[in-house]
Every structure is written in structure tokens, then in C-alpha cells.
Design brief:
The complex is a heterotrimer of chains A (about 250), B (about 120) and C (about 140). Chain A is α+β, with helices and mostly antiparallel strands. Chain A contains 9 helices and 7 strands, in the order E-E-H-E-E-E-E-E-H-H-H-H-H-H-H-H. By secondary structure, chain C is mostly helical. The longest helix of chain C has about 30 residues. Classes of the chains: A alpha+beta (about 250), B mainly alpha (about 120), C mainly alpha (about 140).
């Protein structure tokens, strides 16, 4: 083991600490290591009390998101050597309450996500015997980009509007609403529009665009929100010009 | 049913103003704010400009450019105050200031443009 | 606090700094982009002053032209010009994101949506310059 790098990890113990503090640990600097490997090294060899979330370590589960040197990253997809000679600061995701060390409370995101109704809504479910809802490759392609979201919440950590106004629906929830709106099998776009077109939904977004920059799956939530604004404006014009009709 | 907000309308004005400002203000500002005062280009004479400004199409063009530009400003400035200074709780004052300013500016623009002899 | 949400005993919530937009370059760029709207307003005010001077007569218009040559006004216009161009470039570059145009089932690449914007910018600029300068 030749080289080493210093990690500055944020520690917070809810029953002991008033506020978080930094803990410095030396870890080996290995070419093939990602930041998550370094954290696991600390937990296994240096200090077993360190808490952080992770699961798949291959960029699919979306649970190991943290702030690395101030930027939201999936720690399983961020190489340690990119930060040499260090130190590397690792903190819990911004804009979320910290439960312990690097673990944040994600309940607010889950509430917002379910409010966006990210599932197929049909006016009438057809019975199983009538077969499946078919879709062409082009129809799939329309929403595929937005369906790549792994709910890692890096976009929420990057969004200053969400940090300042916790009522804002936020990037991923809106992108996932848009994913179902664009799905040829879905008939629930009106329900979602009612939820997202009020002032806490899409209108809080000022198009900072960082959600799209930090997204590890190229979902482009910022684009989804602007497209949604355009849709909501068209719907508003329809209801303004034809107050008696429309709706369906 | 969520509250029917007028955000779509304000966003439409903001976007229209953004397009108009992006397409047209750079050349206007370059000519009248820099090139003519600095003598890079010869400024058109008073009579030429007056003849141009008096034309109905020019009047309409100037009115739309000024009014949309102000509504574009109102929208952006409102959110910059909300987020940049963290004063969203003052939103009623800010909205009155920004959109009131844009409406007042539009009225002044209409008056000045109609008054061109 | 809603009682239906089960929170852990205590959690730490960090307040966003008032100067959050100074912390990272993309945030600063964003704030500068938004502040470009002040330049738009400055341009509108200046244009209205110009129209007013034009209506009042040749002497008044000459005074207005002299005012435009004052160093302070020239500097303001130089800064405003920079911000307006910044606004235009960011606006044209971001516009494709709001418009997911699909032709024949495929999404039109961003560049193909942005390019006509720049072309329109060029055409509009040339048209305005030609109308103002031809006299």
C-alpha cells in the first residue's frame, strides 16, 4: 500500500451532537476504488460507528448519493483518484434533514413522488383477458429518457429552489410525472396537471438547470419541467378561451 | 382541483419578452447605446428617425418590445428576489412592485409612443 | 409538523446560506442570467427617454444624444450590452429543452432547434440595422 488520501467525513449523532462535525480518516488511495469503497474501508477498518446508505454499488439502486467536495454524486460511481491528492470532503445530501452521519431523511421526497402519481392511470382498466396494452418502439422512445430515473435525489440536492422552498415539488417528481404523461398507455395527465400546475408544482422552478447537470442517468429533469410549463400554459389557454368545454 | 393560478399567463409574457429581448435588444443597444455615441457608425439624423418612429408599424413594434421586455423583467426579478435574498414571505410586496412596475411602464410607453407627432 | 409523518427523534436541518449563489459557478451564472433582466429594463427606460426626446424636438434630441455620450451612460450601456448578449445566448441554448419536437417518431436534436434561433437572431439584427441605417 503506497499512497493514502484523507477523507473528511461529516459525522452527526442525533442524541449527542448539536450539529455535525468533520472527522478525518486516512484511507488507501487505490486506482480502482470509488468513494464508496473508501467509506466501506473506514467502516470496516477504522471506525465501525460510521453510518451511510448503499446497496448495489453499480449505479442502479440510487441509495449512495452524497455530497463529494460540495457536489452531489453517486459515491459508487465517483472515483477516489479523481480527487487526489485530497482531502475529499464527504457530506450528506444537501437540502435534506440529516438523521445520522451521512444518512438523510427522504420522507419529503417520497411524499412528493407519490403526489405526482408516477404510475399508469386508465379511465377504465381492461380485463386481463383482453390482453396487454401494446406500445411501439417509437412510443416507448418518447418517454424512455425520463423513465431512467433511479430516485437517487441528487437533483434535489442540486436544486437551490428546493433548498429554499421545501414546498416545491422538485425535479425528479416532475420528471416522473412527465414520464407517465408521455406514455401512450396512460390517461391520467389531467389528474397530474391539477397537482403540478399550481404554484408549488412546476412554477417555482427558475431553470437553474443543475438538476440535469448532476443526474447520473441523463434524465434531464430541467427539460421535463420546462416542457411541463409549456403544456400547462397550453391547457390554461384552452380553459381560458373555452371555459365551457375541454377538461377531458 | 388545485388552485387555478395565473402563473401560465405570467410565464407566457415572460417567455415572449425573453424571445423579443434576445432577438432584438442586442442590435438596438449596440447601435444606439454604443456604435452611434462612440462614432463607430454615423447616426441617422433627427428627421429620419422621427419619420421612422412615427410610422404605425414602428409604433406598434416599439410598444410591444418595451412592454414585453418589462414583463420579462418582472418575472425574473421577482424570482431573483425570492431566491437570491430569501424573502419569499414578502411575495405580495414583491409582486406588486414587479408587476405594478411593468404595468405602469406599459402605460407610460403607450402614452409616449402615441404622443409621437 | 404533520403527525402522520414518523420522524426520527431528532434530525439536523441546515439552513441555506443567503449567499448560496456565490458558492458554485453554475449558481453564480444562473443569478447573472436572471439579473440580465435589469439590463432589459434599463434598455426600455432609455428607449422611452429617446422617444420622448424625439417627440419634443431637434434640440431636445441633441441633448439626449449628448447624454448618451456621457462616460457613465456609455459604461452602463457597455455592461448592459454584455448582459443582454449573455441573456440571448443562454435563452437560445435553453429553448430546445422546453420544446421536445419530434419528427417521424424521433426527437429533433437540440442543435437543430438551437441553430434556427441563432439564424433568426442574425436575420432580426440585420433587418433592424438595415432599417435604422438606410436613411
Amino acid at each position: 500500500m503506497a499512497e493514502a488520501i484523507t477523507l473528511e467525513v461529516t459525522r452527526y449523532h442525533p442524541e449527542r451532537d448539536e450539529e455535525p462535525s468533520l472527522q478525518s480518516d486516512e484511507v488507501p488511495l487505490r486506482k480502482e476504488w470509488v468513494v464508496l469503497d473508501a467509506l466501506n474501508y473506514v467502516k470496516d477498518k477504522v471506525d465501525g460507528t460510521l453510518s451511510f446508505r448503499w446497496s448495489c454499488r453499480m449505479g442502479i439502486c440510487g441509495s449512495c448519493g452524497m455530497m463529494v467536495n460540495g457536489a452531489p454524486k453517486l459515491t459508487c460511481a465517483t472515483f477516489l483518484s479523481d480527487y487526489a491528492p485530497g482531502p475529499v470532503r464527504i457530506a450528506p445530501l444537501d437540502n435534506f434533514p440529516v438523521i445520522r452521519d451521512l444518512v438523510v431523511d427522504i420522507s419529503d421526497f417520497l411524499i412528493k413522488l407519490s403526489r405526482a402519481k408516477p404510475w399508469l392511470i386508465r379511465k377504465r382498466e381492461k380485463p386481463l383477458s383482453e390482453g396487454e396494452y401494446l406500445q411501439t418502439a417509437d412510443e416507448l422512445d418518447t418517454y424512455k429518457q425520463f423513465s431512467m430515473c433511479i430516485n437517487c435525489m441528487l437533483c434535489y440536492a442540486a436544486c437551490p429552489v428546493y433548498g429554499l422552498d421545501p414546498l416545491f415539488s422538485g425535479p425528479a417528481a416532475i420528471a416522473l410525472a412527465q414520464r407517465y404523461n408521455l406514455d401512450s398507455r396512460d390517461e391520467g395527465s389531467n389528474q397530474r396537471l391539477d397537482i403540478l400546475s399550481h404554484s408549488d408544482g412546476i412554477w417555482g422552478c427558475t431553470f437553474v438547470g443543475e438538476c440535469t447537470e448532476v443526474c447520473p442517468k441523463n434524465v434531464d429533469p430541467a427539460g421535463a419541467i420546462q416542457q411541463y410549463k409549456l403544456t400547462a400554459t397550453k391547457e390554461w389557454m384552452k380553459s381560458f378561451l373555452m371555459p365551457w368545454g375541454g377538461g377531458e | 382541483m388545485g388552485k387555478r393560478s395565473n402563473e401560465p399567463f405570467l410565464w407566457m409574457l415572460f417567455s415572449a419578452g425573453g424571445v423579443a429581448a434576445a432577438l432584438l435588444i442586442p442590435i438596438h443597444l449596440f447601435l444606439f447605446g454604443l456604435a452611434f455615441p462612440l462614432g463607430w457608425l454615423e447616426a441617422p439624423g433627427y428627421d429620419t428617425l422621427l419619420a421612422l418612429a412615427r410610422h404605425p408599424v414602428t409604433r406598434l413594434y416599439l410598444f410591444v418590445l418595451c412592454s414585453l421586455g418589462l414583463f420579462h423583467w418582472a418575472h425574473r426579478f421577482r424570482y431573483t428576489l425570492y431566491d437570491g435574498l430569501q424573502i419569499k414571505h414578502l411575495n405580495e410586496i414583491i409582486n406588486t412592485l414587479c408587476y405594478g412596475g411593468a404595468i405602469l411602464g406599459t402605460v407610460v410607453a403607450a402614452y409616449l409612443i402615441l404622443r409621437i407627432p | 409538523m404533520s403527525s402522520s409523518i414518523q420522524h426520527p427523534p431528532r434530525s439536523y436541518r441546515r439552513r441555506v446560506s443567503t449567499y448560496w449563489w456565490l458558492g458554485r459557478w453554475p449558481y453564480l451564472k444562473f443569478i447573472l442570467r436572471e439579473l440580465s433582466s435589469i439590463s432589459v429594463t434599463w434598455f426600455v427606460v432609455q428607449t422611452l427617454l429617446q422617444i420622448s426626446a424625439l417627440s419634443r424636438g431637434p434640440t431636445q434630441y441633441m441633448e439626449f444624444e449628448a447624454w448618451l455620450r456621457r462616460p457613465i451612460v456609455l459604461s452602463l450601456n457597455a455592461v448592459s450590452f454584455f448582459f443582454i448578449v449573455f441573456h440571448a445566448v443562454t435563452w437560445f441554448n435553453l429553448a430546445p429543452k422546453a420544446m421536445a419536437i419530434r419528427v417521424g417518431g424521433k426527437r429533433v436534436p437540440s442543435l437543430l432547434i438551437a441553430a434556427p434561433n441563432y439564424l433568426a437572431w442574425l436575420v432580426a439584427s440585420v433587418a433592424v440595422a438595415w432599417i435604422v441605417l438606410r436613411g
